[in-house]
Amino acid sequence: MLVGRPTARWAGPRSLPALLRRHVGLVVVLAAGVALRITTMAAYPPALWFQGDSGTYLRRAAEWPAMPARWTYPWLLKGFEWTGTVASVVALQHLAGLALGVAAYLLLRRLGGGPWLATLAAAPVLLDATQLTLEQYLLTETLFTTALAVAVLLLVWRERPGTIAGLGAGVAVALGMATRPTGVVALGALLLFLLVPWRGWRAPAAYLLGIVVLFGVAFAGIGTVKGALGLEGGKFLYGRTAQIADCDRLELRPGLRKLCPTQPLGQRPARPDWFIWNRDSPIRAVERPEDLDEFAREVLRQQPGDYLAAVASDTARYFWPAPLAPTEACLANWWRPQPAPTDWAADRDCVPRTASPDYRWQPAPSRDVEPNAASRFLHGYGRYAVTPPPALAAMVLIALVGAVWPRRGRLRLSMIGLLYAGVGLGIMVFSVATSMFDHRYGLPALAFLPIAAAVGWQRLRSAPQPTDRTTPADGEPDRLAPTTAESNGEHDERIEDRGHGAAAVPQRG
Q: In which residue ranges is the amino acid composition biased (Basic and acidic residues) (predicted)?
């Protein structure tokens, strides 16, 4: 019995105008995304500055060649220092945001999604005002999101990812985890995707090798496993647990009891990071960094229910609008386009700043600046062009329902939908569990949840595919079974035969 491949003949448009008409939805949304990013760069030159983090990254970049290998974002900054302006880094981040949208569209079209469904899934990352604003900041979010998105795309692009794809995905996900420890959720999700269903050992082995290679380099430069993985110190988890710690009933040694909050439960600051940065925080009394880890572990061990309730409550705020406390509203103000971000002297905590024109690790001096036309437009745009929390909830719901909906022959679509939903949702939950609720920390999910929802919707709308093999009647020719690409709902309209060249398996006669 012969095993053949379906012959694929190109039947698509050959001219640029025809190609643009075929993808008109993406063209329109992408053009809008480009225009919005140019407007953002004109509104807030050369870059937006977040007090504390942005300066730290530039200081680290200035330490080269003694800069630790794990600090990926300072390495990126150092790589563009020759330009003499941080605007070059911001331009790269905006290009990465556009690439995320295009990649989402191409993937969904490859999986058989229609052009308008794919355009709808690409629109949030291309047009969301918070996404535009974060790309303008000297912060790690864009690098982190891009690294994880590349890792996932490498493994889902083909039904059987090869050794090179596995190795590249391992390096990319390790890069994401080195940028922000939250990337560990993608590390585990991608490994599970490679193992279930089992498709051989080469891709999983290459994936793990890529991770080991990158963190091996970091370990060689730092010398400790915790340092290479970015796990040194526990101040963020301390802040998360200090907010809920009931020290009246906690059994703590004297050295840890000094870290108990002085405010009674119910009257503590709304933001857990108060316990990290405020000068009145008990963290000032810490004797050893290890004490912060130990305090957090004791709270988790003795108050697991309170901790899980706090994590669930804060995670839910990503999916349903809830009033913000004054300090939370202050922080949220940083992630929306502002009319004049350079006038920050009157309110140092709530008004965004701009970077210096060169590579100095200090922001531009505070001064009264009249809003320009670009910033006024973006300020108005940012009031409405933000993905609403209920829309994110709907994305998760559609993705999960679509993944488990009974459809024979759609296993791969289910796995892809669950993978994207798991990474997006995992980023939100892990950020809240180890730090706090912040729109900035949840934003990377915007590159994953729309794709998960589109895949779920595609699976809900698709007809079941027969997968049972039947024996043909006497005298009838053997009928080729559906290709693997067919059984997973893949179809490229440019090709007359379904599938992407996967070998068709003939039925037994």
A: 488-500
pTM of the model: 0.86
Question: Could you give the CA distance from residue 292 to residue 192 in angstroms, rounded to a whole number?
Answer: 32
pLDDT, one tens digit per residue, over 411-424 is 889 999 999 999 99
d(CA 176, CA 223) in angstroms, rounded, equals 20
Angle between helices 411-434 and 449-461 (to 10 degrees): 150
Helix (H) and strand (E) counts for the chain?
Answer: 24, 2
Q: How many CA atoms lie within 13 A of 394 on its CB side?
A: 8
Nearest residue to 145 via CA among 99, 81, 212, 113: 99
pLDDT of 171 above 80: yes
Domain boundaries, the chain: 32-139+337-385
Reported as half-sphere exposure (CB side, CA atoms, 13 A), residue 92 has a value of: 18
As beta bridge partners, residue 353 has 49
Helix (H) or strand (E) holding 49: strand 48-49
Q: Among residues 153, 183, 113, 239, which one has the least CA distance to residue 445?
A: 183
d(CA 410, CA 490): 10
Measure the CA–CA gap between 269 and 275, rounded to whole angstroms: 8
Question: Model confidence at 232, in pLDDT bands (50, 70, 90)?
Answer: low
Among candidate residues 105, 161, 97, the one with its CA nearest the CA of residue 451: 105
DSSP state of 63: T
Q: 396: which 2 tokens?
A: 């998760």
Task: Report the half-sphere exposure of 233 (CA within 13 A, side-chain side).
Answer: 9
Average pLDDT for residues 441-448, to the nearest whole number?
Answer: 97
- d(CA 300, CA 122) in angstroms, rounded, equals 39
482: which residues sit within 8 A by CB, 6+ positions away? 409, 465, 466, 467, 498, 504
| Dist. CA 236–CA 232, nearest whole Å | 11
Strand-pairing partners, residue 10, are 495
Question: How far is residue 462 CA from its own chain's centroid?
Answer: 28
